[in-house]
Amino acid sequence: MVILDGGLATHLETLGADLKDELWSAKLLVEDPSVIRRAHLDYFRAGANVAITSSYQASVPAFMRRGLSAAEAENLILLSVRLAMEARDQYGEGTVAASVGPYGASLANGAEYTGDYDLDEDGLADWHRDRWHILAGSGADLMACETIPSYTEARALARLFAETPRMRGWVSFSCRDGEHINDGTPLKEAAALFAGTPQVITVGVNCTAPRHVNSLIGQIQGKPVIVYPNSGETWDPAGRRWLGLADPVEFGAAAAEWHAAGSNFIGGCCRTTPEHIRQIRRHLRTG
């Protein structure tokens, strides 16, 4: 059983960071790297076995739009891995997974939740390639391809795995219901892309409502299953607030159900905290 961390940006905001920026948590690679290290360490101390880096929204073009050079941008992407490794070393054990966020995250228009892209498979492979090879050479233990909303983007990522045959990782999709990823492709079909890829050690879902997870686990065949859903809260854009209550104890109890349904890699995504990870650890130990 492997326990992942929770929402990195969520915890960074709890620690006082202002992430209202196109770079999201990656802005702190420029402004305050130490708080990223602290957030990773808090998750390890809460019971996580895996830290997912702050590179989700980082890219060379995004940093260059801030006036940085390509070399400086590459160094910041490498820094995202180094901070997680330093937290791991301070804690004494753990795994570092380099976050590979979707192309849609760079558009800042919600496309990461729909898969409605203006690039084809070749274009998506080209867009991901620079960051992919930087992270593949960073010393990270795994590549975490996460919140993938598009079948076409998944095909592009499969090509990049083939370009780095020694790099292992996972692919997790964002899903709109209990059967389909966000672009409407059946999860069963999207997951099957990686069934014959030994480098991909687990396939699953993240940034998805917890109520869909049990059904989605049943759609995945041929690989161990990874799940790290969001808290289940919904964003009210008019009131600019989150609606609902994300109870860590209930989340931990749900994690025990996901484990029983077939998932051996479990954590949290948006709006989950170190307390959610503690409860996952507690319920999986006692469930």
From TrEMBL:
Keywords: Metal-binding, Methyltransferase, Transferase, Zinc. Its cofactor is Zn(2+). It comes from the Bacteria. Zn(2+) binds at residues 207, 269-270. Residues 1-284 form the Hcy-binding domain. It holds the Pfam family S-methyl_trans. PROSITE patterns: HCY (PS50970). This is Homocysteine S-methyltransferase. It comes from Streptosporangium pseudovulgare.
